Design the sequence.
């Protein structure tokens, strides 16, 4: 069915001037002037201007082009022309138009201002917009490049269950699920199972959804988000930071070269991404708190850095930076205390610059049995719930570390979004599970 149709991206990449082509897609936009209809066609690979001149087609074709509604699915036959005035530098001079499905009149997304709630209600249609196409393509490229980095560096992809029984990141954000006659939860992270799997597979990663019942409305929390996680045996804090630097700089370089048009459209200068080269600056939590105090913040040592504090710090940077050694009180039970200073952990969060703040969280995990039991109890958790996880410290425990990267947080920064909801096609938020 498809062999005779060309992809728009192929035409926009040049070299087909003068050739007769067939394309198909959706009528993205339309205008008419004088004896010409400008039919803007979108096919999922790109958008191209197609012109139909009154004196070049028969009258019925010209009338059809006049009547065809926005978002109708159409097929076009015509000749490729180089035209500097056309948005992609090329256009198709149409000889034949075929309407596959005439869309109903009144496509809900019009060329006027729509409020965010309206666009969220019509997300199934809004994802056709140029903005969403650009973001979703950058997102796909981001993951493609990340997977490639993992392959080049000897990592194996590993999947953990979504339905779980014990919290990884604390009970407050757990989503309960009725599981036959008992209660289970949606997973907040792959990590605990990953710690089991390193003894089977070595260096591993995943890209999977995590669920958090975030009760506050913020611009950087979804209730369902995609989590890119990494776990590495025989790994310490410094090594895990190196992995984050290398992965992120590789992905940014790839995006700068392979998604430059999308990024430019979104207002991101690719030079900003080419600056994301190792080493990233490293601040300790103590140093971060000191800066906050110097800048007049009333911030209590021991608390986790919140949106306001992270934003303030992240406005001082133009490339990602690390914050290390968070206090035990600010981190989950599995974080390994610093042997030289047990009130802080061997933890690290990576911050995106320009005010964006945290995009990854990670560090060394507790590998000693007694230390883990102590931490579980001190965090008010029940060791019975973590029996299998504790077992891992009985049979060949090794120093190990890892991190979790929020895909939408990272895409928000890369695409310069002002709300995390636009980094995913169908966002789940405290007040939204539709469409
Ligand atoms: P925050 O303090 O910002 O809520 P966190 O400390 O709870 O984040 P982690 O448990 O360390 O986050 O999770 C790892 C990463 O997952 C975070 O660095 C972030 O990028 C992402 N993340 C966490 N919660 C969410 C969420 N609700 N929506 C989107 N991404 C999230
Ligand atoms: Mg959180």
Sequence:
């Amino acid at each position: 069915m498809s062999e005779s149709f060309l992809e728009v991206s192929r035409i926009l990449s040049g070299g087909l001037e003068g050739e007769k082509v067939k394309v198909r897609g959706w009528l993205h936009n339309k205008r008419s002037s004088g004896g010409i209809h400008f039919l803007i066609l979108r096919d999922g690979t790109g958008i191209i201007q197609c012109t139909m001149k009154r004196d070049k087609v028969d009258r019925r074709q010209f009338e059809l082009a006049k009547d065809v509604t926005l978002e109708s699915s159409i097929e076009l036959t015509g000749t490729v022309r180089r035209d500097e005035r056309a948005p992609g530098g090329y256009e198709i001079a149409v000889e034949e138009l075929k309407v596959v499905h005439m869309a109903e009149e009144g496509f809900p997304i019009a060329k006027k201002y729509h409020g965010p709630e309206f666009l969220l209600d019509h997300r199934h249609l809004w994802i056709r917009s140029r903005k969403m196409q650009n973001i979703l393509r950058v997102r796909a490229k981001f993951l493609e490049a990340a997977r490639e980095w993992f392959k080049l560096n000897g990592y194996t992809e590993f999947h953990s269950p979504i339905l779980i029984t014990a919290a990884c990141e604390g009970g407050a954000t757990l989503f309960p699920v009725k599981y036959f006659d008992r209660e289970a939860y949606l997973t907040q992270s792959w990590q605990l199972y990953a710690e089991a799997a390193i003894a089977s597979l070595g260096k591993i990663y995943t890209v999977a959804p995590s669920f958090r019942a975030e009760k506050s409305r913020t611009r950087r929390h979804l209730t369902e988000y995609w989590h890119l996680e990494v776990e590495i045996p025989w790994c310490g804090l410094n090594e895990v930071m190196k992995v984050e630097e290398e992965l992120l700089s590789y992905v940014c370089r790839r995006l700068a070269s392979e998604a430059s048009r999308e990024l430019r459209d979104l207002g991101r200068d690719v030079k900003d991404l080419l600056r994301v080269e190792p080493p990233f600056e490293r601040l300790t939590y103590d140093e971060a708190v000191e800066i906050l105090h110097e800048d007049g913040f009333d911030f209590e040592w021991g608390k986790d850095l919140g949106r306001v504090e992270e934003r303030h710090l992240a406005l001082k940077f133009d490339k990602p930076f690390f914050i290390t050694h968070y206090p035990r009180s600010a981190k989950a039970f599995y974080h390994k205390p610093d042997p030289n200073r047990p009130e802080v952990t061997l933890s690290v969060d990576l911050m995106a610059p320009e005010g964006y703040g945290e995009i990854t969280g990670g560090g060394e995990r507790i590998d000693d049995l007694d230390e883990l039991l102590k931490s579980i109890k001190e965090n008010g958790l029940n060791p019975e719930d973590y029996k299998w996880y504790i077992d891992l410290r009985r049979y060949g425990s090794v120093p190990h570390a890892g991190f979790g990267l929020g895909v939408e947080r990272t895409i928000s920064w890369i695409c310069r979004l002002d709300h995390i909801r636009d980094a995913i096609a169908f966002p789940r938020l405290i007040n939204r599970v539709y469409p």
